[in-house]
Amino acid sequence: MKKDIQPPIAKKSPKELIAHNDVRIDNYFWLNEREDEDVIAYLNAENEYTKQKMAHTEQFQKDLFEEMKSKIKEDDESVPYKLNGYWYITRYEIGKDYPIYTRKKDILEADEEILFDCNEMAKDFSYFKLGGISISEDNTLVAFSTDTVSRRQYTLQVKNLVTGEVYEDKILNTTGSATWANDNKTIFYTRKDEVTLRSDKVYKHKLHENIDDVEVFHEDDETYNTFVYKTKSDKFIVIGSASTLTSEYRFVNADTPDEEFKIFQERIRELDYAIAHYKDSFYVITNADGATNFKLLKTNEIQTEKAYWEEVLPHRKDVLLEDIEIFKDYLVVSERENGLNNIRIISWDGTEDYYLPFDSETYTANTGSNPDFDSDVLRYSYNSLTTPSSVIDYNFKTKAKEVKKEQQVLGGTFDKDNYTSERVWATARDGVKVPVTLVHKKGLEMNGENPLLLYAYGSYGSTIDPYFSAIRLSLLDRGFIYAIAHIRGGEYLGRDWYENGKLLTKLNTFHDFIDCTKHLISENYTSVRHMYAYGGSAGGLLMGAIVNMNPELYHGVLAAVPFVDVVTTMLDDTIPLTTGEYDEWGNPNEEDYYNYMKSYSPYDNVKAQAYPNMLVTTGLHDSQVQYWEPAKWVAKLRDVKTDANLLLFQTDMEAGHGGASGRFESLKEVALEYVFLLELEGITS
């Protein structure tokens, strides 16, 4: 590696930031200007530095890209599902980056009708994403949306499936999804605030009528987002409004879309509920009356207020009720107990109540696409750290299972019996047991010499289940152990697990990760010299916090689109997502939250000390975590860190939060990340 390449040094332009009589000096605030020539020049200079530092690995990156790509079936297609008389299939063709959406009428042997070929639609754009697809009740029209910038601001259009014509009307700045009323001409959709990108207004659009779209709902509370959908029964259009802790719904009959929406149950602070419809009743999943892990209630269509809700499934202290799926003869309940997914099947006539059997210690099982009320078949997916994903159809009547598809790992070398997974429990500093799932090649000796990559997220109650990845095999086959720390802030062990990793208990999230790290080292899975950490977005905040707190534990860290300038961002209510995040992080306009947030905010706590080798990535158009957060963080790290370790910063100048849009293009980003880790281990091929 060349020694003479110098990293770019960002200029300092001190800006005073004052809140609660506390003064913070931000030397790199100027990087907030996306259109500024100096900002673009700095980002390009960082990209060039990364390119030069990794130049000697370019062939390895290409080889690894091809290796990962070769494991993926290029001419792949989804398992067909039936909706309103048509079978819907998404497929890929060899050599093409984007999906092709198709359907067949009545039978799978019918002629294929191409709805959208995203390869054609994407050819003039460096980024392309097809958003929601919504078919009208009479099957002749489809509402669809596209994003060609990667800021999740979708343009909504309608296509005639009989003639192939795409209508000229374009609705800009939507969330991407649309909902048809039953008259085949009325569409409901959600628009975003132009500045904050908060979804705040629901509109009604009448096809072919030369009138302005009607605003049917405005969510004026800045901590809420709004959305619209149709119930599985097709009877109601529902507008939902939700903050982190509270929700509210209103509904109208889908046959009479011009009537007023009726409120289901007015919002009550910290009353969280979701609704589904069946026959003449609504079913309500809610945390009402102290049901921390949620319970299932029902009420009739006329009297929907909380006072009329009747219990169907009671609250259980150790079981999290995650979701329900309604069929004509069965209720399917998705639960989580001791971190593991359970699928419970209950017949409406009360004669059956049982769980589908899963025998692994670590696995993921979820209900799939089940749009047909009258079906006798439940579709669900199953996978684990060692088992490729399967789509399975389970027949309620015969109890038979049929594997409709198992993910293929091409190349002929994969054998799931060559790998092993386990779950271990680390004791956190406050005595709480934190689960960690691991996967590695069989026969690996636990002698402290194994490279180990520990991943976590730990926010918003988002649970990272143990899942199979063909791409990850490129690390496992080179001797890496891959681990997921199920830290507080997620919901792996129930709703309390989330509540104890947010707001004024957020430090538990970071401490759990560090304590899991120490456990894995003490149990000889790895050592400090071979310990690596990885997190993205809010998981990137986690990375920023742990390298400030315990940098000596890690040899290398990957931080993707990291949320690292917490205080400044949460004080700026013009930034997308800020106001809706108060229930997660706290509102720093209140002094207690300000001080607590400042105590862990990665950017505010960078100090003169040695940091691990680090690769930081972002996207210029990211709407979730603005590019300037990692840019400022890296600039400050460069200025004060006392080590000579690698610090690389890569900005995708075309993409946003999700990275590159092409199916295989994103593998180039993974190849860079993996080669960064492998190089640190002295593995060069």
From TrEMBL:
Source organism (scientific name): Formosa undariae
Source organism superkingdom: Bacteria
Gene3D superfamilies on file: alpha/beta hydrolase, Prolyl oligopeptidase, N-terminal domain
Transmembrane helix listed as a keyword: no
One Pfam family of this chain: Peptidase_S9
Listed InterPro entries: AB_hydrolase_fold, Pept_S9A_N, Peptidase_S9_cat, Peptidase_S9A, Serine_Peptidase_S9A
Keywords: Hydrolase, Protease, Serine protease
Entry similarity comment: Belongs to the peptidase S9A family.
Protein name: S9 family peptidase
Signal peptide: none
Cited SUPFAM superfamilies: alpha/beta-Hydrolases, Peptidase/esterase 'gauge' domain
Ranges of residues in domain Peptidase S9 prolyl oligopeptidase catalytic: 467-679
All residue ranges annotated as the Peptidase S9A N-terminal domain in the record: 7-407
